[in-house]
Amino acid sequence: MAWSVTQHDVGAANTSSTAYTSGAFTPGADRLLIVISYIVTAVTITGITGHDGGGSWVQLFSQEGVANAAADVEIWGCFTGSSPSSGSVVISKSGYTESFSANIIEFHEDVVGVDMSGTVANAIGVNGFDVGGYDVSPHQVVLGAFSDSDNLTLGVGFAQGIAANFTFSGYTALAMNENGFSILALYLASEDQTVDATTDSEKIAGIFACEVKMASGSPATRRIMTISNLFNFWPLMFLAGPIKNVSLKRRDFFKPWKWLVLFLTGIN
């Protein structure tokens, strides 16, 4: 399966308002949007609006006490709906803070789409969290069994203060957000239940990982009659008369356009 993952906005230090407004963008129809935030001070997200035509934003994960007693990691998500238009995402916070970091990510599986069979929370499968003290590395998160081997693993690294160089083994880097107070790094991989990461930061750091689920099922397929199959099969066609789902009779043997229709449409 083929996943499309797009980063739309990176929010950083924001001291003048209790809300952060992203730049305007137009997501695809029926996509999964995720906001991942890391705030070092005693400030939390109180709500998110925008691009939520498929249902209101909901909090999917929250872990306080990261890096210090007040710091907070949060994951929020929504579905974009069938007819999204250009607009911004507004992230409301409980107070002013210079340590606000957030990433807005759009997920879509190009063949069958993301899992929209239930709530937004259902599209995010098993998840895990690991945080250590100073100089504690590597970090590891062991996830439960995935619902499908073609689902994605999203890895998130976070650290307080100075820049941290995260390394997620076997992953592709998606985004890095640094504002002088905190670092938020995102990585992607195909199905990976054991997530290992290291960092050279001397500040407190940790990782979060989760499964991003695609819809169940597989794309519809049609068997096309090849030229070789056509000539191998024609004696049976001539003798058998009408064939199910194909309008071809014995009297049509010398009507080449009938064979062309057969060739183009195939046989079920």
Task: Round the Cα radius of gyration to an integer and report it.
Answer: 25 Å
Number of helices: 3
Number of strands: 16
**Helix- and strand-based class?**
mainly beta
**Percent of residues in β-strands:** 35-45%
Sheet with the most strands?
5 strands, antiparallel
Q: Please give the share of residues in helix.
A: 10-25%
Mean pLDDT: 76
Task: Tell the overall outline.
Answer: globular
pLDDT below 50 for ≥5 consecutive residues: which ranges?
A: 218-248, 259-268
User: In the residues, how many domains can be counted?
Assistant: 2
Please give the alpha-carbon distance between the first and last residues: 25 Å
Order of helices and strands: EEEEEEEEHEEEEEEEEHH
Strand arrangement across the biggest beta sheet: 1-8-3-6-5
